[in-house]
Amino acid sequence: MRCCLLIHNIVARAGTERSVCRVLSGLAERGHGADFEVLEVVRGGEPAFHLDGRIGRAALFDRPVSLALSGWRLMLRLRRHVRRGGFDTVVVIGSSLALFAVPALRGLGVRVVFWEHFNFTADLGKRKRRWGRQIVARQASDIVTLTERDIGLWRAGATVRARMTCIPNIAPPPASAPRVDMTARTVLAVGRLVPQKGFDLLLAAWARVCADPRADGWRLRIVGNGPEQAALMRQIETTGLSARVSAEPARSDIASCFDAAGLYCCSSRFEGLPMVLQEAISAGLPCVAFACLTGPEELIADGVSGTLVPPGDIQGLAEALIDLMADPARRQAYSRAALQKAAQFGPDRILPQWESLFYGAPLRR
């Protein structure tokens, strides 16, 4: 088996890139490194996350290109690269990219796997994402989703001829013990500063939290970069939250942020399976999250390992945070249950599923 994994580039500090690096590095550690190559549309620098040196890297273009204007060149270069490299499997990441890549691979006799990192309904308002998924459903050999629920969304929204498999993201190893010290008074939120992550909703909820005396001494810490930074900073200023909110750039030592936090909050409008929430439960953090379409409900058992709030319910989010702030015993119970849940997403459980997909399934042509 020789597999080429096609992605726009591997250098961004985001969940998709982190997941790709974890899976490929894990497969390399299990003896499969020589079988895989990362093929970037645009050549990038060093990955933001560890990528095992046994994984090859190549690129179709040296400079940024527009898919709309250069799609035909991408298709020709991809076909040439796959032929010359002797690849029998191509994994495509990103539905916009799939719009060009999947048709380009027709007739080459290769197995085409589409790896979904959001969910079927998440198109960011772009038609090419919707079109790409429709092409994937009909022409790809396999579709890998992050949740079982998303398989249902695909089948409800498209004519799916591809084989569908759910393989969750890999979570870090769980902490060795639940949290005992419940004195930390920081609510942590991590992610790209984009509308998807709902930090504007979190700040609106935080204004209500700060008005409740049970939240005295608690601070909100937002860690991340992105295009919404200026708007979020204005929201912090205009709502008078500066004294109780810190906004920091993304950082590589994110584990230290989890260690210093007392609670984690996921305010996303939509997700696939949020890696940062997986990391939070692996750290034994009690969590509060919006129960958006896919992701949080797969990671949090409501009332057992965390609290789920109806999507977009700002008042509900504020009340859930305040209730946990006022109840250290419940935070401790959530911490214990979170570690048990995190163990279900360890590499020893997830990597064999990838091995089965790549090495145990017949080739579809």
UniProtKB/TrEMBL annotation:
Source organism of the structure: Acetobacter garciniae
Superkingdom as given in the UniProt entry: Bacteria
All residue ranges annotated as the Glycosyltransferase subfamily 4-like N-terminal domain in the record: 15-169
One Pfam entry name: Glycos_transf_1
Residue ranges of every copy of the Glycosyl transferase family domain listed in the record: 181-338
PANTHER family hit by this protein: GLYCOSYLTRANSFERASE
Protein name: Glycosyltransferase family 4 protein
GO MF, any single term: glycosyltransferase activity
